[in-house]
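Q: Could you fold this chain for me?
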Amino acid sequence: MHDLIRINLLPYREALRAEKNRQAVVVLVGILLIAAMIYYGIFQIFSAQVAAKDQQIQYLQTVSRQLKAEMTTIVDLRKKRAALIAREGLIAHLQDQRNQAVQVFNEMVQLTPPGVFLTTLRTSQQGLTVNGYAEGNADVAAFMRHIQKSAVFSHPVLNIISRFQLGHEPVNRFTLHMRWRSPSITGKKGL
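A: Sure. Below is the predicted structure, expressed as structure tokens.
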């Protein structure tokens, strides 16, 4: 009979299986290392982007603080400018008022016809009210025509006219109101 030769293939199969397992573990570890490196690379990219964004935010915050300081300065400068303009307007107003009384009296001298005598002048924001005496109604009418042509006054309105005895002479006592025409005179008081 033949002697059969018996070969035990079990250790070879186990060795082949162990080699495949070892290769699978190496491939798995390699895949895990590659995945870890990819993850680390993506993490580094995102970290760099976050750091860059943080720097941009810090820069923008610095610029924002500087702009706020400059805006505060601009607001202060605008307030100072407005105050200076107000002072300039006040100075111009005072300069206009400085000659107001002289201008009003000069105009009244030129407008008053012979035969009219003025006793009081009162100013208001709307105009000037005068009281006086006239030798006749025609003199008061001439006075009103002169006022209508004036560069300083307009719209004369005769409020009261009455006969009055001044000494031994009969005269007409009158009250006349007129408006300001010139804006530099308007609204000024205190002659």
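A (continued): The longest helix spans residues 10-98.
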